[in-house]
Design a protein that fits this description.
Blueprint (H helix, E strand, L loop, with lengths): L1 E4 L9 H8 L1 H10 L14 E3 L14 H13 L13 E5 L10 E3 L6 E3 L2 E3 L1 E5 L10 H11 L34 H7 L7 E3 L4 E7 L9 E5 L4 E9 L8 E9 L9 E3 L9 H7 L11 E5 L4 E8 L3 E7 L1
Parallel strand pairs: 1-2, 1-3, 3-7, 8-10
Antiparallel strand pairs: 4-7, 5-6, 9-16, 10-11, 11-12, 12-13, 14-15, 15-16
Helix pairs in contact: 2-4
Bound molecules: zinc ion (ZN).
């Protein structure tokens, strides 16, 4: 983690305070969410590194690949003599609060277009901008952006109204603020859960015991493919981020042909939202997504049905019919 000071700004924050905003919460999140399977280790150069130009010069425009890469390359160049960069997979650059760096994008370089240092090509970076100073936009932002480095898409919608109506905050790639667990679909992709912890049913019927996403063991999802590129997924989630929050079932539809920002994952809520401000704060929209009993899914066209049979100690027993 490197800290970039733009000359058009006066630094009022310590690098320690920014590290504290971004890192300890993320380490804790990954311990919890990955069941200890991912260990993030963040070393830092604990001082401000002055940039060559002002934040608004256009040379650090993080919305364009070439200038975004140049920004990262310049900062890496400033520590190349003192840090052995061959030890690192990812570079996090934290900018001083500055008019030219409003947000915190990920830099993903195609092979051959990364930044060369100490015999290594660095292809993965995040440049943190002003947004990390906002409430609930510290370590949660690091988790969201690092999710992109791991290959996960944005689940919020790239449109200016109701951004979060596709997946709410049920995954940090949709809405990062509450720091909810990643969806089981993503946890399997990340290797935090095994593929055989999802029951995939194309035909036939049976009962499945689903256990809550907070624990590592047991069956975590029912996956019902409804075509070559689409599936329904049901998993057990809590209505909140505490261990005592009510447990229910979350139903969503995954489309591997839908682009990021266009809703590759869409949660199908159990009820319309009722304006409850407590849940709204956590989930923005789709906070009424969980099912607690009855029929969760009944898609006659695709012959896909899921009914809650009963609550169990660790989750739910569901009846699945194709
Ligand atoms: Zn994103």
């Amino acid at each position: 983690m490197l800290f970039a000071h733009f000359p058009d700004t006066t630094v009022e924050e310590t690098t320690q305070s920014l590290y504290d905003r971004l890192v300890p919460g993320a380490l804790d999140y990954y311990r919890r969410a990955s069941y200890g399977r991912l260990t993030l280790k963040v070393d830092r150069v604990d001082r401000w590194l002055p940039t060559d130009r002002t934040s608004t010069s256009g040379d650090y425009d993080c919305s364009r690949f070439d200038t975004h890469r140049r920004y990262v390359a310049e900062i890496i160049g400033k520590v190349d003599n003192e840090v052995d960069l061959s030890d690192y997979d990812v570079v996090y650059v934290v900018g001083s609060r500055a008019p030219g760096v409003p947000n915190s994008p990920t830099l993903l370089c195609p092979a051959g277009e990364g930044v060369r240092a100490d015999g290594r090509e660095i292809r993965f970076a995040v440049t943190f901008g002003n947004d990390i100073r906002g409430r609930d936009w510290g370590w949660q932002t690091l988790v969201h952006e690092t999710g992109h480095l791991f290959g996960l898409p944005d689940l919020y919608l790239y449109e200016k109204t109701n951004w979060h109506r596709a997946s709410g905050a049920w995954d940090p790639m949709g809405l990062q603020m509450p720091g909810c667990h990643h969806l089981v679909w993503h946890k399997i992709k990340l290797g935090w859960l095994r593929e055989d912890q999802a029951v995939v049913l194309r035909e036939g019927s049976g009962s499945v015991d689903l256990t809550s996403v907070e624990t590592a063991d047991g069956t975590k999802a029912v996956v019902l493919p409804i075509g070559a590129h689409e599936a329904y997924v049901v998993e057990a989630r809590r209505h909140g981020v505490g261990d005592d929050d009510p447990l229910g079932l979350l139903l969503y539809r995954v489309s591997s042909e839908t682009a990021r920002g266009e809703g590759p994952i869409r949660v199908l809520p159990a009820r319309p939202d009722d304006g409850n401000p407590a849940w709204k704060r956590l989930f923005e929209v789709l906070y009424s997504a969980l099912w607690f009993d009855g029929t969760v899914l009944d898609d006659t066209e695709h012959r896909a049905k899921v009914v809650i049979e009963r609550r169990t100690d660790e989750g739910f027993r569901v009846r699945v019919e194709r």
